[in-house]
Amino acid sequence: AAPASARAFMASTLDPGPASGRAALLPGVHGRAVCEGHVGGPGWRRADPAWWLSRGLSPLPWASASAPAALRAAGLPAGALAPAGSGGGLAAACMAARPLAATEIAAAEATDEQDVSGSSSDGPMWRGIVGFVVPTYFLVVTNMVLTALDKAFVGQCSSLQLASLGPSTAIFDCSSYLLTFMNTATLTLLGSEPPENLNKIRSHALAFTTVAGALQGAMLFLAAAPSVRLLGATGTMLPFSVLYLQIRAMGAVVDRLGSISTQFWLANKDGVTPMLATLVAASVNAAGDYLLCPRYGVAGAAVATVVASAVSAVFLVLKLRKSKLWPRPLEWPSFRRDFTPFAAFAGPVFIVLLMKVLLFALMTAAATSLGTTVGAAHQVLVSIFFVCGIAFGQPLSWAAQAYLAGVEDPAERRRITRSLLGVASTFIMLSVATAAVMARCCLGWFTRDPHVIAEAATAAPTIVVFGALYALYLTLEGLAIALQKLRACLLVSLSLALAGGLSLRWLTMGGKLTLAGLWASQAGLLAIAAAAIGAAACTGLVGRSRATAMAVG
CB burial class (10 A; 0-12, 13-18, 19+) of residue 337? Predict the structure, then answer.
Protein backbone atom coordinates (compact mmCIF):
# COMPACT_ATOMS: atom_id res chain seq x y z
CA ALA A 1 0.00 0.00 0.00
CA ALA A 2 1.07 3.57 -0.59
CA PRO A 3 2.26 5.65 2.42
CA ALA A 4 -0.36 7.56 4.36
CA SER A 5 0.92 10.86 2.96
CA ALA A 6 0.20 9.79 -0.63
CA ARG A 7 -3.26 11.34 -0.85
CA ALA A 8 -2.14 14.72 0.54
CA PHE A 9 0.94 14.85 -1.65
CA MET A 10 -0.89 13.86 -4.84
CA ALA A 11 -3.60 16.41 -4.07
CA SER A 12 -0.88 19.06 -3.90
CA THR A 13 0.47 18.04 -7.30
CA LEU A 14 -2.95 18.52 -8.86
CA ASP A 15 -2.90 22.25 -8.27
CA PRO A 16 -2.23 23.89 -11.66
CA GLY A 17 -0.50 26.92 -10.16
CA PRO A 18 -1.08 30.63 -10.71
CA ALA A 19 -1.74 32.21 -14.07
CA SER A 20 1.96 32.90 -14.58
CA GLY A 21 2.58 29.17 -15.08
CA ARG A 22 4.79 28.68 -12.01
CA ALA A 23 3.94 25.69 -9.83
CA ALA A 24 1.70 26.28 -6.83
CA LEU A 25 3.16 25.20 -3.50
CA LEU A 26 0.86 23.26 -1.16
CA PRO A 27 2.11 23.41 1.49
CA GLY A 28 5.56 25.03 1.31
CA VAL A 29 7.69 28.10 0.88
CA HIS A 30 10.40 29.19 -1.54
CA GLY A 31 9.46 26.74 -4.29
CA ARG A 32 9.10 23.51 -2.27
CA ALA A 33 6.46 21.42 -0.52
CA VAL A 34 6.86 19.37 2.65
CA CYS A 35 6.46 15.63 2.30
CA GLU A 36 6.52 13.14 5.20
CA GLY A 37 8.63 10.00 4.85
CA HIS A 38 10.94 11.50 2.23
CA VAL A 39 14.37 9.76 2.44
CA GLY A 40 13.76 8.61 5.96
CA GLY A 41 12.30 11.85 7.28
CA PRO A 42 10.73 15.22 6.45
CA GLY A 43 12.32 17.08 3.54
CA TRP A 44 11.71 19.78 0.95
CA ARG A 45 10.63 19.19 -2.65
CA ARG A 46 8.84 20.88 -5.55
CA ALA A 47 5.06 20.40 -5.68
CA ASP A 48 5.10 20.26 -9.49
CA PRO A 49 5.82 16.62 -10.56
CA ALA A 50 6.72 17.68 -14.10
CA TRP A 51 9.65 19.63 -12.64
CA TRP A 52 11.11 16.45 -11.15
CA LEU A 53 10.43 14.37 -14.24
CA SER A 54 12.26 16.90 -16.42
CA ARG A 55 15.37 16.00 -14.41
CA GLY A 56 14.84 12.23 -14.73
CA LEU A 57 13.75 11.87 -11.10
CA SER A 58 10.63 10.44 -9.56
CA PRO A 59 8.33 13.08 -8.03
CA LEU A 60 7.04 10.54 -5.49
CA PRO A 61 8.66 9.91 -2.07
CA TRP A 62 8.42 6.15 -2.49
CA ALA A 63 9.71 3.64 -5.04
CA SER A 64 8.64 4.50 -8.56
CA ALA A 65 7.13 1.05 -8.99
CA SER A 66 4.39 2.01 -6.53
CA ALA A 67 3.37 5.11 -8.46
CA PRO A 68 0.15 3.60 -9.92
CA ALA A 69 -0.82 2.42 -6.45
CA ALA A 70 -0.18 5.91 -5.11
CA LEU A 71 -2.45 7.37 -7.75
CA ARG A 72 -5.17 4.86 -6.89
CA ALA A 73 -4.72 5.58 -3.18
CA ALA A 74 -5.32 9.23 -3.89
CA GLY A 75 -8.49 8.34 -5.79
CA LEU A 76 -7.01 9.24 -9.18
CA PRO A 77 -6.99 7.34 -12.50
CA ALA A 78 -3.55 6.41 -13.84
CA GLY A 79 -3.67 9.08 -16.58
CA ALA A 80 -5.16 11.84 -14.47
CA LEU A 81 -1.99 13.87 -14.32
CA ALA A 82 -0.99 13.44 -17.95
CA PRO A 83 0.43 16.63 -19.45
CA ALA A 84 -1.40 17.96 -22.51
CA GLY A 85 -0.31 16.05 -25.60
CA SER A 86 1.98 13.66 -23.68
CA GLY A 87 -0.11 10.59 -24.43
CA GLY A 88 1.37 8.56 -21.58
CA GLY A 89 0.29 10.11 -18.33
CA LEU A 90 2.22 10.85 -15.19
CA ALA A 91 1.93 7.34 -13.79
CA ALA A 92 3.90 5.86 -16.67
CA ALA A 93 6.47 8.61 -16.41
CA CYS A 94 6.85 7.97 -12.70
CA MET A 95 7.42 4.27 -13.29
CA ALA A 96 10.18 5.08 -15.80
CA ALA A 97 11.88 7.51 -13.46
CA ARG A 98 14.42 6.54 -10.83
CA PRO A 99 13.71 6.82 -7.10
CA LEU A 100 15.21 9.90 -5.44
CA ALA A 101 18.53 9.78 -3.66
CA ALA A 102 19.50 12.39 -1.09
CA THR A 103 22.33 13.77 -3.24
CA GLU A 104 19.96 14.08 -6.19
CA ILE A 105 17.49 16.01 -4.08
CA ALA A 106 20.17 18.53 -3.15
CA ALA A 107 21.32 18.90 -6.76
CA ALA A 108 17.76 19.30 -8.03
CA GLU A 109 16.96 21.90 -5.38
CA ALA A 110 20.12 23.84 -6.29
CA THR A 111 18.86 23.87 -9.87
CA ASP A 112 15.52 25.10 -8.52
CA GLU A 113 17.28 28.10 -6.96
CA GLN A 114 18.79 28.90 -10.34
CA ASP A 115 15.35 28.62 -11.96
CA VAL A 116 13.88 31.06 -9.46
CA SER A 117 16.69 33.59 -9.62
CA GLY A 118 18.14 33.11 -13.10
CA SER A 119 17.71 35.24 -16.15
CA SER A 120 15.67 32.62 -17.99
CA SER A 121 12.99 32.94 -15.35
CA ASP A 122 13.19 36.71 -15.25
CA GLY A 123 13.03 37.11 -19.00
CA PRO A 124 9.26 36.76 -19.50
CA MET A 125 8.60 38.90 -16.43
CA TRP A 126 10.79 41.86 -17.43
CA ARG A 127 9.50 41.67 -20.97
CA GLY A 128 5.94 41.85 -19.64
CA ILE A 129 6.83 44.83 -17.46
CA VAL A 130 8.47 46.61 -20.40
CA GLY A 131 5.36 45.88 -22.49
CA PHE A 132 3.30 47.54 -19.76
CA VAL A 133 5.61 50.48 -19.02
CA VAL A 134 6.35 51.63 -22.58
CA PRO A 135 2.75 52.38 -23.64
CA THR A 136 1.92 53.84 -20.23
CA TYR A 137 4.93 56.14 -20.56
CA PHE A 138 3.48 57.49 -23.78
CA LEU A 139 0.12 57.69 -22.02
CA VAL A 140 1.57 59.84 -19.23
CA VAL A 141 3.85 61.92 -21.41
CA THR A 142 1.03 62.68 -23.82
CA ASN A 143 -1.09 63.85 -20.89
CA MET A 144 1.82 66.04 -19.82
CA VAL A 145 2.04 67.36 -23.37
CA LEU A 146 -1.50 68.73 -23.08
CA THR A 147 -0.28 71.33 -20.56
CA ALA A 148 3.15 71.69 -22.21
CA LEU A 149 1.47 72.48 -25.53
CA ASP A 150 -0.54 75.23 -23.85
CA LYS A 151 2.67 76.74 -22.48
CA ALA A 152 4.50 76.41 -25.79
CA PHE A 153 1.77 78.16 -27.83
CA VAL A 154 1.07 80.80 -25.19
CA GLY A 155 4.81 81.46 -24.77
CA GLN A 156 5.06 82.32 -28.45
CA CYS A 157 2.48 85.06 -27.88
CA SER A 158 3.45 86.63 -24.55
CA SER A 159 5.92 86.02 -21.71
CA LEU A 160 3.43 87.65 -19.32
CA GLN A 161 0.71 85.16 -20.21
CA LEU A 162 3.23 82.30 -20.03
CA ALA A 163 4.17 83.34 -16.50
CA SER A 164 0.47 83.61 -15.60
CA LEU A 165 0.03 79.93 -16.49
CA GLY A 166 2.33 78.99 -13.60
CA PRO A 167 -0.09 79.53 -10.69
CA SER A 168 -3.20 78.43 -12.62
CA THR A 169 -1.75 75.21 -14.08
CA ALA A 170 -0.12 74.40 -10.73
CA ILE A 171 -3.48 74.66 -8.95
CA PHE A 172 -5.42 72.66 -11.53
CA ASP A 173 -2.77 69.98 -12.08
CA CYS A 174 -2.04 69.63 -8.39
CA SER A 175 -5.71 69.35 -7.44
CA SER A 176 -6.18 66.76 -10.19
CA TYR A 177 -3.07 64.91 -9.05
CA LEU A 178 -4.40 64.98 -5.50
CA LEU A 179 -7.54 63.18 -6.64
CA THR A 180 -5.51 60.36 -8.18
CA PHE A 181 -5.55 58.70 -4.76
CA MET A 182 -8.79 57.20 -6.10
CA ASN A 183 -6.89 55.92 -9.11
CA THR A 184 -4.28 54.26 -6.90
CA ALA A 185 -6.93 52.60 -4.74
CA THR A 186 -8.90 51.46 -7.80
CA LEU A 187 -5.84 49.96 -9.51
CA THR A 188 -4.81 48.05 -6.37
CA LEU A 189 -8.34 46.79 -5.62
CA LEU A 190 -8.93 45.63 -9.20
CA GLY A 191 -5.68 43.69 -9.04
CA SER A 192 -6.35 41.98 -5.73
CA GLU A 193 -10.11 41.36 -5.55
CA PRO A 194 -11.89 38.26 -6.97
CA PRO A 195 -13.60 38.60 -10.39
CA GLU A 196 -17.11 38.69 -8.95
CA ASN A 197 -16.28 41.98 -7.17
CA LEU A 198 -14.80 43.82 -10.16
CA ASN A 199 -18.08 45.26 -11.49
CA LYS A 200 -18.84 46.74 -8.08
CA ILE A 201 -15.33 48.21 -7.75
CA ARG A 202 -15.55 49.86 -11.18
CA SER A 203 -19.04 51.19 -10.45
CA HIS A 204 -18.03 52.69 -7.13
CA ALA A 205 -14.82 54.15 -8.56
CA LEU A 206 -16.82 55.89 -11.30
CA ALA A 207 -19.33 57.28 -8.80
CA PHE A 208 -16.71 58.54 -6.34
CA THR A 209 -14.57 60.05 -9.11
CA THR A 210 -17.48 61.82 -10.82
CA VAL A 211 -18.58 63.42 -7.56
CA ALA A 212 -14.99 64.41 -6.76
CA GLY A 213 -14.55 65.94 -10.23
CA ALA A 214 -17.73 67.97 -9.88
CA LEU A 215 -16.63 69.28 -6.46
CA GLN A 216 -13.15 70.05 -7.80
CA GLY A 217 -14.57 72.03 -10.72
CA ALA A 218 -16.98 74.02 -8.56
CA MET A 219 -14.37 74.89 -5.95
CA LEU A 220 -11.72 75.94 -8.49
CA PHE A 221 -14.19 78.05 -10.46
CA LEU A 222 -15.45 79.92 -7.39
CA ALA A 223 -12.06 80.28 -5.68
CA ALA A 224 -9.93 80.93 -8.78
CA ALA A 225 -8.83 84.47 -7.85
CA PRO A 226 -7.72 83.82 -4.24
CA SER A 227 -6.10 80.53 -5.28
CA VAL A 228 -3.82 82.00 -7.93
CA ARG A 229 -3.02 84.97 -5.67
CA LEU A 230 -1.82 82.46 -3.11
CA LEU A 231 0.77 81.22 -5.61
CA GLY A 232 2.03 84.66 -6.56
CA ALA A 233 -0.25 85.84 -9.40
CA THR A 234 -0.66 89.58 -8.93
CA GLY A 235 -1.04 92.74 -10.97
CA THR A 236 -1.28 92.26 -14.73
CA MET A 237 -0.70 88.53 -14.35
CA LEU A 238 -3.83 87.96 -12.21
CA PRO A 239 -6.68 88.18 -14.79
CA PHE A 240 -4.94 85.77 -17.19
CA SER A 241 -4.37 83.21 -14.41
CA VAL A 242 -7.98 83.43 -13.23
CA LEU A 243 -9.42 83.08 -16.73
CA TYR A 244 -7.34 79.99 -17.56
CA LEU A 245 -8.17 78.28 -14.26
CA GLN A 246 -11.92 78.92 -14.52
CA ILE A 247 -12.14 77.48 -18.04
CA ARG A 248 -10.14 74.38 -17.02
CA ALA A 249 -12.41 73.99 -13.97
CA MET A 250 -15.46 73.64 -16.21
CA GLY A 251 -13.91 70.50 -17.72
CA ALA A 252 -12.88 68.88 -14.43
CA VAL A 253 -15.54 66.15 -14.54
CA VAL A 254 -14.56 64.82 -17.98
CA ASP A 255 -10.90 65.04 -16.96
CA ARG A 256 -11.58 62.81 -13.93
CA LEU A 257 -13.72 60.42 -16.01
CA GLY A 258 -10.89 59.87 -18.46
CA SER A 259 -8.41 59.39 -15.62
CA ILE A 260 -10.38 56.69 -13.80
CA SER A 261 -11.24 54.92 -17.07
CA THR A 262 -7.52 54.63 -17.70
CA GLN A 263 -7.12 52.67 -14.45
CA PHE A 264 -9.63 50.08 -15.68
CA TRP A 265 -7.35 49.39 -18.63
CA LEU A 266 -4.16 49.40 -16.55
CA ALA A 267 -5.64 46.89 -14.10
CA ASN A 268 -6.17 44.69 -17.16
CA LYS A 269 -2.43 45.23 -17.93
CA ASP A 270 -3.35 47.12 -21.11
CA GLY A 271 -1.50 50.39 -21.56
CA VAL A 272 -2.00 50.59 -25.33
CA THR A 273 -5.66 51.65 -25.37
CA PRO A 274 -5.16 54.59 -22.94
CA MET A 275 -2.09 55.57 -24.95
CA LEU A 276 -4.17 55.73 -28.12
CA ALA A 277 -6.75 57.87 -26.31
CA THR A 278 -4.13 60.37 -25.19
CA LEU A 279 -2.59 60.51 -28.67
CA VAL A 280 -6.02 61.45 -30.03
CA ALA A 281 -6.38 64.05 -27.26
CA ALA A 282 -2.93 65.51 -27.98
CA SER A 283 -3.78 65.87 -31.66
CA VAL A 284 -7.03 67.68 -30.83
CA ASN A 285 -5.23 69.88 -28.29
CA ALA A 286 -2.45 70.82 -30.70
CA ALA A 287 -4.96 71.74 -33.41
CA GLY A 288 -7.00 73.80 -30.94
CA ASP A 289 -3.94 75.63 -29.62
CA TYR A 290 -2.80 76.41 -33.15
CA LEU A 291 -6.18 77.85 -34.08
CA LEU A 292 -7.12 79.61 -30.84
CA CYS A 293 -3.95 80.75 -29.01
CA PRO A 294 -2.81 83.45 -31.48
CA ARG A 295 -6.16 85.22 -31.06
CA TYR A 296 -7.36 84.33 -27.57
CA GLY A 297 -4.13 83.58 -25.67
CA VAL A 298 -4.57 81.66 -22.41
CA ALA A 299 -8.35 81.40 -22.91
CA GLY A 300 -7.87 79.64 -26.25
CA ALA A 301 -5.32 77.27 -24.71
CA ALA A 302 -7.72 76.36 -21.89
CA VAL A 303 -10.62 75.67 -24.28
CA ALA A 304 -8.42 73.47 -26.46
CA THR A 305 -7.33 71.40 -23.45
CA VAL A 306 -10.89 70.91 -22.15
CA VAL A 307 -12.13 69.77 -25.57
CA ALA A 308 -9.17 67.39 -25.90
CA SER A 309 -9.89 65.88 -22.45
CA ALA A 310 -13.54 65.33 -23.41
CA VAL A 311 -12.58 63.58 -26.65
CA SER A 312 -10.17 61.30 -24.75
CA ALA A 313 -12.80 60.40 -22.13
CA VAL A 314 -15.42 59.55 -24.77
CA PHE A 315 -12.87 57.39 -26.63
CA LEU A 316 -12.03 55.42 -23.47
CA VAL A 317 -15.65 54.92 -22.44
CA LEU A 318 -16.64 53.62 -25.88
CA LYS A 319 -13.70 51.21 -25.88
CA LEU A 320 -14.56 50.01 -22.36
CA ARG A 321 -18.15 49.33 -23.36
CA LYS A 322 -17.00 47.42 -26.45
CA SER A 323 -14.58 45.33 -24.38
CA LYS A 324 -17.20 44.71 -21.65
CA LEU A 325 -15.03 46.38 -19.01
CA TRP A 326 -17.55 49.17 -18.44
CA PRO A 327 -19.60 48.36 -15.31
CA ARG A 328 -22.97 46.78 -16.13
CA PRO A 329 -25.18 47.16 -14.24
CA LEU A 330 -23.92 50.31 -12.58
CA GLU A 331 -23.98 49.68 -8.81
CA TRP A 332 -24.48 52.92 -6.93
CA PRO A 333 -22.44 52.92 -3.71
CA SER A 334 -23.57 53.50 -0.16
CA PHE A 335 -21.43 56.08 1.57
CA ARG A 336 -21.15 54.30 4.91
CA ARG A 337 -20.94 50.75 3.63
CA ASP A 338 -18.77 51.23 0.54
CA PHE A 339 -16.81 54.46 0.84
CA THR A 340 -15.40 53.74 4.31
CA PRO A 341 -13.46 50.58 3.27
CA PHE A 342 -12.38 52.36 0.09
CA ALA A 343 -11.13 55.34 2.09
CA ALA A 344 -9.32 53.09 4.60
CA PHE A 345 -6.79 52.23 1.90
CA ALA A 346 -7.01 55.43 -0.12
CA GLY A 347 -6.77 57.80 2.88
CA PRO A 348 -3.02 57.42 3.48
CA VAL A 349 -2.40 57.63 -0.28
CA PHE A 350 -4.38 60.89 -0.30
CA ILE A 351 -2.11 62.37 2.37
CA VAL A 352 0.99 61.21 0.45
CA LEU A 353 -0.24 62.97 -2.68
CA LEU A 354 -1.25 66.04 -0.68
CA MET A 355 2.32 66.41 0.56
CA LYS A 356 3.63 66.26 -3.00
CA VAL A 357 1.12 68.86 -4.12
CA LEU A 358 2.09 71.10 -1.21
CA LEU A 359 5.78 70.84 -2.02
CA PHE A 360 5.33 71.69 -5.71
CA ALA A 361 3.02 74.56 -4.82
CA LEU A 362 5.71 75.96 -2.52
CA MET A 363 8.29 75.61 -5.30
CA THR A 364 6.02 77.45 -7.77
CA ALA A 365 5.28 80.22 -5.26
CA ALA A 366 8.99 80.65 -4.50
CA ALA A 367 9.90 80.85 -8.20
CA THR A 368 7.06 83.27 -8.98
CA SER A 369 8.17 85.57 -6.16
CA LEU A 370 11.46 86.12 -7.99
CA GLY A 371 9.72 87.93 -10.86
CA THR A 372 8.13 87.36 -14.25
CA THR A 373 11.30 86.17 -16.00
CA VAL A 374 12.19 83.61 -13.33
CA GLY A 375 8.55 82.53 -13.03
CA ALA A 376 8.36 81.90 -16.78
CA ALA A 377 11.70 80.04 -16.74
CA HIS A 378 10.45 77.89 -13.89
CA GLN A 379 7.44 76.87 -15.99
CA VAL A 380 9.78 75.83 -18.81
CA LEU A 381 11.71 73.62 -16.38
CA VAL A 382 8.49 72.21 -14.93
CA SER A 383 7.48 71.13 -18.44
CA ILE A 384 10.81 69.28 -18.86
CA PHE A 385 10.38 67.72 -15.41
CA PHE A 386 6.90 66.47 -16.27
CA VAL A 387 8.10 64.82 -19.48
CA CYS A 388 11.34 63.38 -18.06
CA GLY A 389 10.58 62.85 -14.37
CA ILE A 390 6.92 62.10 -13.71
CA ALA A 391 6.29 60.56 -17.12
CA PHE A 392 9.13 58.06 -16.62
CA GLY A 393 8.43 57.36 -12.95
CA GLN A 394 4.62 57.07 -12.87
CA PRO A 395 4.40 54.04 -15.23
CA LEU A 396 6.98 52.23 -13.11
CA SER A 397 4.92 52.96 -10.00
CA TRP A 398 1.79 51.65 -11.74
CA ALA A 399 3.67 48.54 -12.87
CA ALA A 400 4.70 47.78 -9.28
CA GLN A 401 1.09 48.06 -8.13
CA ALA A 402 -0.36 46.13 -11.09
CA TYR A 403 2.11 43.22 -10.90
CA LEU A 404 2.64 42.91 -7.13
CA ALA A 405 -0.95 43.41 -5.91
CA GLY A 406 -2.29 40.14 -4.55
CA VAL A 407 0.98 38.19 -4.99
CA GLU A 408 1.61 36.14 -1.85
CA ASP A 409 4.41 33.79 -2.94
CA PRO A 410 7.70 35.27 -1.62
CA ALA A 411 9.78 33.92 -4.50
CA GLU A 412 7.38 35.41 -7.03
CA ARG A 413 7.42 38.78 -5.25
CA ARG A 414 11.21 38.82 -5.33
CA ARG A 415 11.24 37.88 -9.00
CA ILE A 416 8.79 40.69 -9.90
CA THR A 417 10.72 43.21 -7.79
CA ARG A 418 14.05 42.24 -9.33
CA SER A 419 12.65 42.53 -12.85
CA LEU A 420 10.94 45.84 -12.07
CA LEU A 421 14.12 47.39 -10.67
CA GLY A 422 16.06 46.24 -13.72
CA VAL A 423 13.54 47.88 -16.03
CA ALA A 424 13.50 50.98 -13.82
CA SER A 425 17.28 51.43 -14.04
CA THR A 426 17.07 51.48 -17.84
CA PHE A 427 14.17 53.93 -17.87
CA ILE A 428 15.89 56.24 -15.40
CA MET A 429 18.94 56.39 -17.66
CA LEU A 430 16.62 57.27 -20.53
CA SER A 431 15.09 59.94 -18.31
CA VAL A 432 18.52 61.51 -17.74
CA ALA A 433 19.34 61.45 -21.45
CA THR A 434 15.98 62.92 -22.47
CA ALA A 435 16.12 65.69 -19.87
CA ALA A 436 19.68 66.61 -20.88
CA VAL A 437 18.72 66.88 -24.56
CA MET A 438 15.59 68.92 -23.81
CA ALA A 439 17.42 71.26 -21.44
CA ARG A 440 20.15 71.88 -24.01
CA CYS A 441 18.23 71.98 -27.28
CA CYS A 442 14.53 72.51 -26.64
CA LEU A 443 14.15 75.55 -24.37
CA GLY A 444 13.16 77.64 -27.37
CA TRP A 445 10.09 75.47 -27.86
CA PHE A 446 8.47 77.11 -24.84
CA THR A 447 9.36 80.78 -25.27
CA ARG A 448 11.02 83.26 -27.60
CA ASP A 449 12.16 85.53 -24.79
CA PRO A 450 15.99 85.31 -24.61
CA HIS A 451 16.00 86.33 -20.94
CA VAL A 452 13.66 83.46 -20.02
CA ILE A 453 15.76 81.00 -22.05
CA ALA A 454 18.96 82.20 -20.38
CA GLU A 455 17.45 81.90 -16.90
CA ALA A 456 16.17 78.38 -17.61
CA ALA A 457 19.57 77.35 -18.98
CA THR A 458 21.30 78.25 -15.70
CA ALA A 459 19.13 75.74 -13.82
CA ALA A 460 19.12 73.06 -16.54
CA PRO A 461 21.64 70.67 -14.86
CA THR A 462 19.61 70.58 -11.65
CA ILE A 463 16.39 69.65 -13.47
CA VAL A 464 18.18 66.64 -15.03
CA VAL A 465 19.20 65.33 -11.60
CA PHE A 466 15.85 66.14 -9.99
CA GLY A 467 13.91 64.35 -12.75
CA ALA A 468 15.99 61.16 -12.44
CA LEU A 469 15.66 61.10 -8.65
CA TYR A 470 11.92 61.65 -8.85
CA ALA A 471 11.51 58.74 -11.30
CA LEU A 472 13.42 56.52 -8.86
CA TYR A 473 11.37 57.79 -5.94
CA LEU A 474 8.06 57.02 -7.68
CA THR A 475 9.24 53.50 -8.54
CA LEU A 476 10.20 52.72 -4.96
CA GLU A 477 7.03 54.34 -3.64
CA GLY A 478 4.96 52.12 -5.95
CA LEU A 479 6.71 49.06 -4.50
CA ALA A 480 6.02 50.25 -0.97
CA ILE A 481 2.32 50.89 -1.74
CA ALA A 482 1.95 47.46 -3.37
CA LEU A 483 3.51 45.90 -0.25
CA GLN A 484 1.11 48.00 1.87
CA LYS A 485 3.86 49.97 3.61
CA LEU A 486 1.52 52.96 3.67
CA ARG A 487 2.68 54.28 7.02
CA ALA A 488 6.26 54.51 5.76
CA CYS A 489 5.10 56.27 2.59
CA LEU A 490 3.15 58.74 4.69
CA LEU A 491 6.07 59.46 7.02
CA VAL A 492 8.55 59.98 4.17
CA SER A 493 6.16 62.28 2.27
CA LEU A 494 5.45 64.38 5.35
CA SER A 495 9.16 64.70 6.08
CA LEU A 496 9.98 65.62 2.47
CA ALA A 497 7.31 68.34 2.31
CA LEU A 498 8.34 69.80 5.67
CA ALA A 499 12.04 69.78 4.86
CA GLY A 500 11.40 71.21 1.39
CA GLY A 501 9.30 74.07 2.73
CA LEU A 502 11.85 74.91 5.43
CA SER A 503 14.75 74.87 2.96
CA LEU A 504 12.93 77.24 0.60
CA ARG A 505 12.09 79.51 3.52
CA TRP A 506 15.71 79.55 4.66
CA LEU A 507 16.98 80.36 1.13
CA THR A 508 14.42 83.16 0.76
CA MET A 509 15.14 84.76 4.14
CA GLY A 510 18.88 84.62 3.50
CA GLY A 511 18.55 86.22 0.08
CA LYS A 512 20.13 83.14 -1.52
CA LEU A 513 17.14 81.88 -3.48
CA THR A 514 17.76 81.41 -7.19
CA LEU A 515 16.04 79.17 -9.71
CA ALA A 516 19.01 76.78 -9.83
CA GLY A 517 19.27 76.79 -6.03
CA LEU A 518 15.56 76.05 -5.71
CA TRP A 519 15.75 72.87 -7.81
CA ALA A 520 19.13 71.80 -6.36
CA SER A 521 17.94 72.03 -2.75
CA GLN A 522 14.91 69.89 -3.50
CA ALA A 523 17.01 67.35 -5.41
CA GLY A 524 19.20 66.81 -2.35
CA LEU A 525 16.19 66.21 -0.12
CA LEU A 526 14.61 63.93 -2.72
CA ALA A 527 17.72 61.70 -2.75
CA ILE A 528 17.36 61.17 1.01
CA ALA A 529 13.62 60.48 0.64
CA ALA A 530 14.28 57.91 -2.13
CA ALA A 531 16.73 56.06 0.12
CA ALA A 532 14.19 56.03 2.97
CA ILE A 533 11.28 54.77 0.86
CA GLY A 534 13.55 52.14 -0.71
CA ALA A 535 14.48 50.86 2.75
CA ALA A 536 10.77 50.68 3.63
CA ALA A 537 10.04 48.66 0.48
CA CYS A 538 12.89 46.25 1.32
CA THR A 539 11.57 45.69 4.83
CA GLY A 540 8.15 45.05 3.29
CA LEU A 541 9.55 42.33 1.05
CA VAL A 542 11.50 40.67 3.88
CA GLY A 543 8.65 41.00 6.38
CA ARG A 544 6.02 39.49 4.09
CA SER A 545 8.39 36.63 3.17
CA ARG A 546 8.93 35.80 6.85
CA ALA A 547 5.20 36.05 7.57
CA THR A 548 4.43 33.65 4.72
CA ALA A 549 7.11 31.21 5.87
CA MET A 550 5.77 31.26 9.45
CA ALA A 551 2.18 30.77 8.26
CA VAL A 552 3.19 27.75 6.17
CA GLY A 553 5.42 26.35 8.89
Answer: exposed
